[in-house]
Amino acid sequence: MAQLVRTVEYHSSRQREIVEAVRERIVSGELAPGSRVPSVNELATAHKSSTKTALGALGYLRQRGFITCQRGSGSFVSGTPPNLTHFGIVFLSSPEPDGWWSHFLVAWKREAERFAAPDGDGGRRGLRISFYYLNEGAPAVQKLQSDVEADLLAGLISPAFPDALSGTPILADRRMPKVVCSHIPMEGFTILDLDNDGLREKAFRYLVSRGRRRVAILVPTFHNRGELPTDPLIRLASSCGLTTHGYWIQGIDIGSPEWAANWTEFLCRPGSERPDALFITNDNLVPAATQGLLNAGVRVPDDIDVVAHCNFPYPTASAVPAKRVGFDMRRILRNGIDLIERQRRGEEAPPVVTVPALFDDELEPAAET
Description:
Blueprint: H1 13-27, E1 36-37, H2 40-46, H3 51-63, E2 67-70, E3 74-77, H4 82-85, E4 86-91, H5 103-116, E5 128-133, H6 138-149, E6 155-158, H7 169-172, E7 178-181, E8 190-194, H8 196-209, E9 215-220, H9 230-239, E10 249-252, H10 259-267, E11 277-280, H11 286-295, E12 305-312, E13 323-328, H12 329-344, E14 352-355, E15 358-359
Parallel strand pairs: 4-5, 4-6, 6-7, 7-8, 8-14, 9-10, 9-11, 11-12, 12-13
Antiparallel strand pairs: 1-3, 2-3, 13-15
């Protein structure tokens, strides 16, 4: 297994020795936030160095946020050292040159920026968040590895498994807490499992409560070969009291959502066997799919009820009234950070945390700032 080898450059081997000794005492918790750090003279004596070297080591730690200096009183561990308050979010890719990104990733980034703002949920705790885009190649991976090596991160959170890090020392480092959104167990990661099965059942049971019996379903097309959800969706809809057909389940590439408008308009054309319910399972497809209903002249909700996926609190536009169901990005991010903080405190964290699906009227009220 690859081992994490520290490659940070120092002015001298003695300065490196002092920096790593003090930093290790901070990271291990021996020196807690607010604790006094050994003085320049104490460090110089303990490490058989000059006071200039010891002073440089403290300056290095101060620049990286591990310690603060109080004139006339000495140096103290920062109240917000990076190993406890600086979180990395790892994206497989950066936004495309034309600005397009899946809305799930857009919501992730927006919520992280809001959370870490001075008046955001995390800002009140002094948390910071950095973004790492792995499609930027070796420089991005090297920057991430450098920050991990220097204990500048409390932990890593990723919306999906970061394949580009496979085989790297970053994934081999067991001291670095790592959290990923997935439904598959992964060694070295705590799993945030978005309950998509629960989301589908929740949507279907809502439609039944509205008196609906025939549902069409729009899904994204990023499924593996042989793993299309047609049969499971038919079975689940049937178990909830709904009827659907294979030809009422359509997959659309979320990168070309305009095709969804063509499908829903064709689905509801005059003289056809129409469904009385539509479930849009991906928020990237909502604007176009609902525009297709409008183009077809369908009355919503008189003729058809619509349930549309949402990454709360960032809904995509809908051309017709739609019941929103999805996952609260605020809860996802808070869960990820809380799991990392628990591990940093030496507490046992569950290997899997299930994130429930919610309707818009079930969301927690936004925290006042």
